[in-house]
Design brief:
This protein is of the alpha/beta class and 274 residues long. The protein has 2 domains: 192 residues, ABC-type transport auxiliary lipoprotein component (Rossmann fold, 3-Layer(aba) Sandwich), CATH 3.40.50; 64 residues, Carboxypeptidase-like, regulatory domain (Immunoglobulin-like), CATH 2.60.40.1120. 32% of the residues lie in helices and 38% in strands. It has 6 helices and 13 strands. The strands form 3 sheets. Strands 1, 2, 3, 4, 5 and 6 form a 6-stranded mixed sheet that branches. β11 and β12 form a beta hairpin. α2 packs parallel to α6. The longest helix is centred in the N-terminal third of the chain and has 24 residues. The protein is elongated and about 90 Å long.
Amino acid sequence: MNKKLLVFTLSMIFILLISINVQAAEVRTVAIIEFENSIGKYYYQTRGIEKTVQDRLNTLLTNSDKFRVVEKDKISEIIEEQKFSLSGLVDESETAIELGKLIGADHIITGTLNTLSINEEKFSGYGTTLYRVKASMESSIRLINVTTGIIEMANSYNVKKEFQGESASSIDVRAASDDLINRIVNEFERDINSYKFADSESGEKVQVSFTSTPSGASIEVDGLYVGNTPFEIPLELGIHKVRIYMGGYESWEMSVRISRDMNKIDVNLGKAGN
């Protein structure tokens, strides 16, 4: 083979491999948690529709080349094993983050179906009556970074559709809700596909100071002993489990989100048995 042609071929292969690696690095693993149905008045007519949101998001994002979606059965299995509650996963970021780490996700997608409105309009004249129904649904969806604990997206969607020739008593509420959910899911898919993700693996650190009363207490961060108060240590941004303890005193334990603004931990240890 011609030497120049060989060099050219090897160069193309090298560039192709780099391109493949870059594309693979951009694929993010997401876990879509079953939404909470807080629709209220129409809850019984729409019961189970929260699973529809999860299923449709699963399908859309699975077909995207930007995301790897954790299987729904795997998520359900972990939720059952760890006894997580649905409301906790939706409302408490720390619970969702803990689940995300257990299933190996980079991001958690969760949300709530907040309201469903169905309003009838009637037009009478010339011996006839015409009906029209205006339906609307509002939903909130959050994207949580499992590494940093930051809610990267918190979007509210309010979608509407008119149904000609329908009245409030004749409209199929479940079918109308399905239609509205499709619109919400499509809008979210558009938003997440255009979202510019921060580099969650940047490993940025901040200097964190630990103090206690009394001083000299032992400090554990993420299960590892790091020193005694007063003490300073660089920690990566995000959620860390911190324990500060001393013989004869009650220990202090908490999951703390370390940020540029949250970089000082000062605790008062109460005497044991008091």
